[in-house]
Specification:
With about 250 residues, the chain is an alpha+beta fold. The protein has helices at about 15-25, 60-65, 75-100, 105-130, 140-150, 155-165, 175-185, 190-200, 205-215, 220-230, 235-250; strands at about 30-35, 45-50, 50-60, 70-75. The protein is about 60% helix and about 10% strand.
Length: about 250
């Protein structure tokens, strides 16, 4: 019978248990040996395992995940920490972006997708330069980051829609129809669009007059009417305002 070294029967006759015990003895223990403050970001800490830098976490994660020097880790726990590290980095970037101005959920998801694509492209370049690639941004991480932003209220479609309606082309003028179409492109739900537009203080006549004031010198009445209708204003209102404005010039 062919013998394989290390798999001879023990006195108990259980070769699988003997082999597993030998394997576990050879597997190096994973121990958190050092925790240091981040150099570029003081709100993150560097975690060293078995004397080598392994990953970084934000301060909140250190507390929540019970990270401390001397803690023993399994391979599964180490993988979970790597996932937590990537989540923390992406969440920080996304939070900074979300706080710059209100954003829709769709806009935020697209932003996260762009960061994911950028990481892929960056890793291709790193491989060409014979550098170690960075961890890929997983779809699961994107979903978790987006869910956290929504949960904390940093990303909200209704807040975004109100901001958009009240600030879009304030000086130039814009029709409610165009606002509606633009919000739909940003995948804001129809019920939110309807509620926000109905409660807006911007009225069609005022917005129409803003555009007429800027475009009057470029068009005759017929072309101006056609232009304004294409901008989403109702024909009857456009015709009435354009003709009345025209007659007031004489």
């Amino acid at each position: 019978m062919l013998k394989i070294e290390g798999l001879e029967k023990s006195s108990s006759g259980d070769t699988s248990k003997d082999w597993l015990a030998q394997f576990n003895e050879q597997e190096p223990a994973l121990t958190i040996t050092q925790i240091t403050s981040g150099v570029r970001d003081p709100n993150r800490v560097n975690v060293f395992i078995n004397g080598r830098y392994t990953l970084s976490l934000d301060i909140r994660q250190v507390v929540d995940l019970h990270i401390k020097v001397g803690r023993k880790l399994s391979q599964d726990e180490l993988q979970d920490l790597h996932k937590a590290s990537e989540f923390g980095k992406l969440y920080k970037r996304a939070l900074e972006w979300a706080l710059s101005r209100p954003h829709s959920i769709w806009e935020t998801r697209e932003y996260l997708r762009r960061r994911q694509l950028h990481r892929i492209q960056n890793n291709r370049k790193r491989l060409q330069d014979e550098l170690k690639p960075l961890p890929e941004i997983q779809d699961e991480t994107i979903s978790l980051v987006l869910d956290r932003l929504i949960e904390k209220g940093y990303v909200n479609d209704r807040t975004f829609a109100k901001y958009y309606v009240e600030n879009r082309f304030v000086k130039k003028g814009i029709s409610q129809k165009r606002l509606e179409l633009e919000l739909r492109k940003k995948q804001v739900p129809d019920n939110i669009i309807k509620d926000v537009l109905s409660s807006s203080t911007r009225d069609e006549k005022t917005e129409l007059l803003k555009i007429i004031q800027k475009k009057r010198h470029k068009y005759d009445n017929q072309k101006l009417i056609s232009y304004l209708v294409r901008q989403g204003f109702k024909y009857d209102l456009v015709k009435e305002i354009v003709l009345s404005e025209d007659s007031s010039l004489y």
